[in-house]
């Protein structure tokens, strides 16, 4: 069973103009060599809780930036 440990960044991949998540997998390091780009559908299917947590922190970070720079 595949398990995602963490989603580290949300990146725009220019090829085909689609969004992908950089994912850190259980049992692997967080180096660029060990993380992979995965489509949102795959991340949602295998790590819905990790994705929800990541998106919540991303939204909170954006709100903090807006509050600090009105």
TrEMBL record:
Species for this entry: Fusarium fujikuroi
Protein name listed in UniProt: Chromo domain-containing protein
InterPro entries: Chromo-like_dom_sf
Subunit (UniProt): Component of the NuA4 histone acetyltransferase complex.
Source organism, top-level taxon: Eukaryota
SUPFAM superfamilies: Chromo domain-like (SSF54160)
CDD domains per record: CD_CSD (cd00024)
Upper lineage: Eukaryota, Fungi, Dikarya, Ascomycota, Pezizomycotina
């Amino acid at each position: 069973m595949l398990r995602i440990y963490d989603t580290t960044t949300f990146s725009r991949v220019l090829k085909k103009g689609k969004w992908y998540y950089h994912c850190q997998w259980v049992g692997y390091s967080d180096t660029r060599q060990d993380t992979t780009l995965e489509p949102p559908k795959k991340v949602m299917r295998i790590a819905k809780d990790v994705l929800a947590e990541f998106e919540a922190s991303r939204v909170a970070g954006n709100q903090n930036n807006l509050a600090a720079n009105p």
